[in-house]
Amino acid sequence: MPNIFRVSVPQRLSAARVRPHKILQNLRNYVQKVLEKVLRDVRNNRRFDSLQEEINNIAKRQEGEHNLEVNAQIWHSQAEQLRDLLESDKKANEEDRKEMMSLAQESDARVDHAIFLNSAKLSYAERWAKAKLEQQELKLKLRKTDMLNELSDCTKEYSAEQVVSAEMTAYLEADIRVKEKQVVEWTKRYNEEVAQLQWEIDELKREVEEQKFEIGEMRALRDRRQEFIDECVAEEKRLQEEARYWKKLNKAATIIQAMWKGYMVRRKLENLREKMKNRKKLKRAKKAHVKKR
To answer: Where along the sequence do coiled-coil regions lie (predicted)?
Structure first.
């Protein structure tokens, strides 16, 4: 039994498959470019149209290649069946064997013819894929040029934005420094005003204490005067019998009292005048201090 089906058919199928492998190898770079194009499409348009288009094209090409391979496998399967049939009928008569050999040779001729046709189709598919690749490469080059131009424009725009951003940053930093300086000045002024107000409060407290002390002295003086008056009244009662003497004494006491009252009034008025002068001096000092600032 000749080994025509064991050797020739697989070798022919292997030879027929060399070109599809070469196409797939050439398509690797093309797929990488397609993926770059899809990535740009996703970034710019949020769509996958280019990817879907390339998938459809690849599916069509793979479908054609698959059909060719399926046909070759069908013929190979038929040849294997015939080979098995021939081996099982080795002991049959010679005429049957010759008839089966004739059928096998005819089948082998069909396989050769199918492989020839498929090789022609594969050659056409390769040329079509090559032309398609060249077309896609041209489109990608044009797209790359457009993208480079857009990148150049974006770079110029970005540079301009950087200049504007630097100017804005410098302006804002200068404004911040001015504001910080103003904050320091206002804080200093606030602290000075607080210190001035605290000094005024302390002065007022001191004046209040002095006035309280003076009020205490006036109350003590009033008590002493009241005690003196009481003593005078008691003395007057005791000396009622001595009318003249009491009259003179009462007159003297009245004169003394009047003089004392006048003295106390004058003293009080002098103290009030002195306080008024001190307050006026204090107010003038405050105004002068505010004007100096």
So the answer is: 187-238
Rounded CA separation 7/107 (Å): 15
Structure tokens at 171: 């302006």
CA distance 64 to 161: 53
How many Å apart are CA 190 and CA 202, to the nearest integer?
A: 18
The two most distant CA atoms of the chain are separated, in Å, by 197
pLDDT at residue 220 greater than cutoff 50: yes
Instruction: Give the closest residue to 114 by CA, choosing from 61, 64, 76, 66.
Output: 76
Within a domain: 32: yes
Average pLDDT over residues 166-171: 79
**Distant-in-sequence, close-in-space partners of 283: CB < 8 Å, separation ≥ 6:** none
Rounded CA-CA distance 185/191 in Å is 10
Q: How far is CA 133 from CA 38, 57, 148, 207, in A?
A: 16, 11, 22, 104
Q: Looking at the domain assignment, is residue 208 inside a domain? A: no
**Burial 59-81, CB ≥16 within 10 A → b, else e:** eebeebbeebbebbeebbebbee
Q: Which domain holds residue 79?
A: 20-112
The chain-wide mean pLDDT, for the chain, equals 70
Is residue 246 domain-resident? no
Whether residue 178 lies inside any domain: the answer is no
For residues 87-101, give the mean pLDDT: 58
Burial class (CB in 10 A: 0-12, 13-18, 19+), 14: exposed
User: What number is the average pLDDT over the span 50-77?
Assistant: 65
Domain count, the chain: 1
